[in-house]
Amino acid sequence: xxxxxxxxxxxxxxxxxxxTAAPAYAQAEDHAPVALPSAQQMTQDKAGTESWTYAxxxxxxxxxxxxIVDPTVVYQGPDAQFEGIDPADRAKYAQIITDxxxxxxxxxxxxxxxxxxxxxxxxxxxxxxxxxxxxxxxxTRVTPLGFATSALKSALGKTGSFTGSVLYAVELYDAKxxxxxxxxxxxxxxxxxxxxxxxxxxxxxxxxxxxxxxxARRRLEELTHTGGQ
Length: 229
Known about the structure:
This protein is of the alpha/beta class and 229 residues long. It is built from six helices and seven strands; from the N terminus they run ααββββαβααββα.
């Protein structure tokens, strides 16, 4: 395989491959993104985490059957986390997320030309991204020890070594009234065993977008058909 032939030439010590530096995450561990419209309504799920949530009672969602996906927004607030990522790449990543969401959600939820009484509006904002260290990240998956370590991390729901991530906000509105129904801030990474996602930061974003779109569709199905039960 092409990936394998490249990796056999890597001569990095295994100790270096399996050592991760602590990421310099910022605002979301202390407060919700200050320039996000829903920031004042969200509460932190657990102290010291980047997980923030606001939600209306789940029964409110039973009336909705269609979804409009707004173009993904690149966050411009003073607490954005895009170190080393230029504006053109940020815009590219936003488009990847928009495309994945639209192609996935339409499998269950039609997208009307204009808001109806049963229409939700989904808005995603990329708050930050961390780069993938291509090559090194891949090597930690395909060596025997690296694969075993990644398998364990996957089973435990942890992140893979040297693989980037996306910090994003999801806001869900009633498309007719613009009432906020749900908002959340989360950081997401690919599964540690997803080797293609380790090749570059763009590949990482694509993997995150696919996983996010799939989970968003499944969660919206639960909310709109069973009230989240």
